[in-house]
Amino acid sequence: MSDFVLASDLGGTNTRVSAVTSDGAILASSRSRTPAKGTPEEIAGEIISLAGCCDQVGQYEKPSAFGVAVPALINAPTGAIIYSPNLPQLNGVRFTDLIAQKVDVPVVLENDANAAAAGEAWLGASKGVETSVCVTLGTGVGGGLMIGGNLWRGIDGNAGEIGHVCVVPGGVPCGCGSAGCLEQYASASAVVRMAEEIRSEFPGSVLTGHKALTSLDVFNAAAAGDAAALEVFRQVGAHLGTALAGLINVLNPEAIVVGGGAAAAWDFFIDHVRSTICEKAFQRPAERAKLVRAALGDTAGILGSARLAFDARAELT
After folding, report:
1. pLDDT at 104
2. pTM metric for this prediction
3. The CATH number of 4-117+298-316 is which of 3.30.420.40, 3.80.10.10, 3.30.70.20, 3.20.10.10?
């Protein structure tokens, strides 16, 4: 039996593949720009090409499974992508089939936020925790649920879409077709929009001098004590806290892990998350749920994909 699997994290900008052992050691990795305008076959081909990193793993014969994380709603049992907002050409494609045609191992498909949740539960911030919620704050907002130590996918495989919990009824339209979703109030893109909307209310703000704001501009302004930027992150924290309070009441988790690139602003929003949870969740579950920062950084999805690949391999033996 082989001692490692391949794990891929397909992003809208970059694609990575790593060879990972059963104890979570990354033996080799490779990365490239995602062919965002490419055909499904070309995108799958890029993943397969990057899988050549396993050639560097000389002490092992071959991988025994391949875990692939994608930024999409998926049907895990069939290996099909249902909806991918950043790579719409993959909608309806049985993506695992495209990869399995070229690699002679089982291929496991998973949503990227679910993979991150599995990674953090395996080796990260929620290691040893039976019930946890993982929220990823990036260009959008993703989420994953670990219940009883296992990833909870729901009947259709689409559980954990925390970014599409409504926090402002009738609010900003969302790409999912609804309005007022958390993604429109807690993502990096939301931070920019909110900063543009309120900066005129703060004449002394450094943000008023930017013609094309970025989330990094808002972060840096907050770090310098800018009132407008701090107000943006207060709102982020309040909206995130509203969504998490509901999840705490429903799931009674032991831990809530917050990761993703936008979580770099943790110090500016986390107190507002906590205070909102205290206001809106039942006292005992709110006190029990530990709010922690993700520990694995951008390797969470890779390691989670690897863990799920090992699990799939075990089910087949």
Report:
1. 86
2. 0.93
3. 3.30.420.40
